[in-house]
Amino acid sequence: MHAVKTILKKELADHFSSYRFMILFALIAMVSLITVYMAGINLKQELEGVAKPRFVFLMLFTSRGAMFSLVEFVAFFGPLIGLILGFDTINRERNEGTLSKLLSQPIYRDDVINGKFLAGMVTITVMLISIVLVITGLGLSLLGVIPGIEELLRIIIYLIISIIYVSFWLGAAILFSILFRSVATSALAALAAWIFFSFFVSLGASVMAGAITPDAGASDPAALIARAKITKAIALSSPMELYSDSAATIIDPMRKTNRSFVQMGVIERFSMARFSGPLPLSQSILVVAPYIISLIAITVICFAISYTVFMRQEIRSF
Question: Number of C-alpha atoms within 13 angstroms, CB side, residue 213?
């Protein structure tokens, strides 16, 4: 455990003192603040002279600024934080010859990989918490509304989900840095994975669902529902989809389902009209629990693969 703490401290010092971290943090913070500021200004104008809704503070995270909301921004660009922090974690030290020197010390291999991953997670946590705290202060000054206990709990849970989501991409980047000796190759592989899961999975889901149910249309509601289910099932293979649905449901109490297509009959419409209030926090967690568990599972699996590959590599290959 002492060796893990040593690696952790060393990696944290490298991260926080590097220009890469400073530039990345400044860029992410700047875009987040601009997005929330524009969303807050729009909310302030729309709510001027009317009674403020109960969860108006959470609207800062879900309302769109110029192009996207904060939740959408983290879902799309959050992976870049993990990828940039981890794409050269192992192969950079291997190419510089410092990895063999490190392993020649009384430090086990698992201490190295565990310390580097924990350092990345701590860095991600510090970045996201700092941004959320600044956004919270900005929201207080713009809206003049103090968030309630449930709003704060929803923000904390959203923050935890975001940390898990970005940590998955950190684990993927570390895996590529172990598999490829070249830093450029691992960086390209990491970017290719991000592009694939961010763009092509959603496009492929629509194409495959259309090919499986070619006769779906307004005249055949059953086939239309089947197409929507197939599209959703394929899209959920992307971590971005898992995160977007879970984060949006947690941060928006008025959202009561993850389904994009809901067939409503007389009873469903009556229930929606009768229970049109916000969903309690416990119920929102139950709705997104499978997605959160899936995010945790793929993060653990990705790191486990990285751990196994790193432990099986020959020392002389370093």
Answer: 18
CA distance 109 to 87: 19
Give 92-140 pLDDT, tens digit per residue: 888 887 877 777 777 788 888 899 999 999 999 999 999 998 888 888 8
d(CA 298, CA 239) in angstroms, rounded, equals 8
Q: What angle do CA 184, 190, 195 make, to 5 degrees?
A: 125
φ/ψ of residue 258, rounded to 5: -95, -5
Over the range 178-217, which residues count as b (16 or more CB within 10 Å of their CB) and which as e? Answer: bbbeebeebbebbbebbeebbeebbebbeeebeeebeebe
Q: How do residues 33-64 score in pLDDT, each as one tens digit?
A: 888 888 888 887 877 766 666 778 888 888 87
